[in-house]
Amino acid sequence: MTATDTGATRSELFIDGRRLSYLDFGGTGRPLVALHGHLSEGATFAHLARALGPEWRVIAPDQRGQGESDRAADYAREGYLSDLEALLDHLQLDQVVLLGHSLGAINAYQFAARHPQRVSALVNAEGAAALGLDGSNPFGFLLNLPYDAPTREALIAGLGPAAPYFSDRLRENPDGSWRLPFHPQEMYRSEDQVHGDHWADWTATGCPALLVHGTKGVIPPEQVRDMVERRPGTTAAELDADHLVHTAAPDAFATAVREFLAAV
Question: pLDDT by residue (tens digit) across 10-46?
């Protein structure tokens, strides 16, 4: 257990020998577990945690293969969901609010579909009910990126045009070499495996849900409308932002979430 510059405490649990790291922003408020998207990590929710405290205790794991969590053998749907179940059990949390962005949002509502008694409310930030049905993968650019290099400078050079997006999050290995906080090829495969028609999971539960989407997000407007209409208890909030709604418009995102939670 270690303190971090986000104001959270970093802890970990082990699942079959694989480390799952998480940030706990603390407090005695009601628990909210926040799940990041691909190429991200739990620290991305630090602003939200500050905005929601002290009424809410935000816990933000680094999902498998990202941030400080170990790489996994696979990135199939059930693996992500079993990690989340293990985290809740580890923290002895019987019921939580689940908030997720993109990959994390899909993980959240799929977990709720399988464990409805453990989820009191959902916040879905840019997590589509159906995506990638045309077979395309937006992470094609990852396939040519290096995972590690002998020095930080060499890794940045190898990343080329992608360097500005990741250079502030590079990790130093014990031997002095440097790496990305995710394996590019593994994240490409993970993106492939999150694609699909997930309407049955999205509509499986009726707990209160907030769908946050950006004006320049990835969910088509007609799908946003259908996601609200086809799932009871769902409201929508549109923000002037791209797919990264929680970091592109952090104050507006926090306000939308706080107002929604006030009614839960």
Answer: 999 999 999 999 999 998 999 999 999 999 999 999 9
Which whole-number Å values give the CA distances from 188 to 141, 142, 171, in the listed order? 9, 7, 20
Task: Report how far apart the first and last C-alpha atoms of the chain are (Å, whole number).
Answer: 31
The two tokens of residue 99 are: 């908030």
Is residue 143 domain-resident?
no
With respect to residue 147, please indicate whether it lies within any of the assigned structural domains: no
The CATH number covering residue 67 comes to 3.40.50.1820
CA 168 to chain centre: 19
Global pTM value: 0.97
- How many CB atoms within 10 Å of residue 106? 27
Domain containing residue 43: 2-133+186-262
Separation of alpha carbons 251 and 138, rounded Å: 28
* Amino acid identity, position 19: R
Residue 13 belongs to some domain of the structure = yes
C-alpha of 108 from chain center: 9
The tens digit of pLDDT for each residue in 40-90 reads 999 999 999 999 999 999 999 999 999 999 999 999 999 999 999 999 999
Q: Is 253 left (phi over 0), alpha (psi -120 to 50) or beta?
A: alpha
